[in-house]
Amino acid sequence: MGDTIENRVAFVSGGSRGIGAAVALRLAEDGADVAITFQRDKARADEIVEQIRGKGRRAVAFQADSADPDAVVDAVHSTAAAFGRFDILVNNAALFPVGPIEQVGPDDFEQTMAVNVRAPFVAAQAAVRHMTAGGRIISIGSNVAVRAAFPGFALYSMSKTALIGLTKALGRELGPRAITVNLVHPGPTDTDLNPAGGPMAATINGFTALGHYAQPSDIAAAVAFLASPEARYVTGATVNVDGGFTA
Predict the structure, then answer these.
(1) Which N-terminal stretch is annotated as signal sequence (predicted)?
(2) Which of 14, 140, 167, 198 is 20 to 30 A away from residue 160, measured at CA?
(3) Known catalytic residue: 213?
(4) Per residue in 43-57, pLDDT tens?
């Protein structure tokens, strides 16, 4: 795979905002051409595409609802067709349901599992059809899959915990093909959904060892390492980037 990810092709689901956007931009900085998916905000996705192109890399955005498995698979195959190869899959898109378990309805359950569990599975299933030796599958999990410190996270925590099993099993299955599979568990990260200045921020900071939120670029740095040739002997692993939340 060489010493860099120069001219490799990366796919980042939910890459128009937050952690996904930071990952897409970091992989572009490191030399990859990047495809992202977005659900509704085309203007925001177009901004990320232009920023990637401004770094001298090719970029494209596909509208794809991660709850629709056909849309996810089509986006993966369209990426391979557009760029002529497919090297790095980053499963980032997710729903973040929070609330008492008594208020979780069947539709909430189905939608969360579709986006947070089924989408990463079918994306990996489609991606490996295009990957060769040196391929990378990286999923974005959550610190609450390891430590459920607050009430109301049962559905979200369960969905993210499923990615641990997927990562370990796929890492074992794809190892003989020199394709690595890893999982990044972010801790509290300053995004639109969970701003560092939000009403719960002080409480959440108190659960970390470092006492503050991560920036999306902190998560992107871990993803960039796992996508790089330097991580060729890391597979089936979970990397906590959580400021010591789970320490």
Answers:
(1) none
(2) 198
(3) no
(4) 999 999 999 999 999
